[in-house]
Amino acid sequence: NAGVMQNPRHLVRRRGQEARLRCSPMKGHSHVYWYRQLPEEGLKFMVYLQKENIIDESGMPKERFSAEFPKEGPSILRIQQVVRGDSAAYFCASSLDRARTDTQYFGPGTRLTVL
Amino acid sequence: RKEVEQDPGPFNVPEGATVAFNCTYSNSASQSFFWYRQDCRKEPKLLMSVYSSGNEDGRFTAQLNRASQYISLLIRDSKLSDSATYLCAVINQAGTALIFGKGTTLSVSS
User: Do the chains contact at A105 and B46, CB–CB below 8 Å?
Assistant: First the structure.
């Protein structure tokens, strides 16, 4: 039973480019969460999506960041015009039921480096 | 006050030692609590959920103290393989996400 999958595992971008991070939840899971871990910092919530809907995006920066979870295919976290401060590990998690009642399982993360 | 706070450590203990970590949370209405383990900036892995009555899984015991708003993790008979960062997490008020502490680093030596 495959766990949460993320790709790419490592992504290098130059300032001003776009970064696309993909997350495939565990089989049967329809709730997806994105978290960011900056160097020497804790994990910070960014956005919570359920198929085709954004439920909570209170942790997303207001500009340049967007997320989607289409009916078919993986969830995508998109960062436009990346800056050095975006360099971090981005983790996706999924759960079978909503966050309040169910356990979140994490993917291996995507390490974004902005040059 | 931060929503979830942990002593960053590091805790350096010999094999076989018993070690305990505490984690405080600020929202008295919080309902769900977890301990995750993270190795070398890899993904967090669920260690255990924390129930009101406390729970035990082998060498690991988790406790919840609602009156003082903290949760604890006790590790008995520490192994070298227990060396990791232990993250405390609480479900946010909206019930939509986990709020993590910065983690407590444990180093077990032979």
Answer: yes
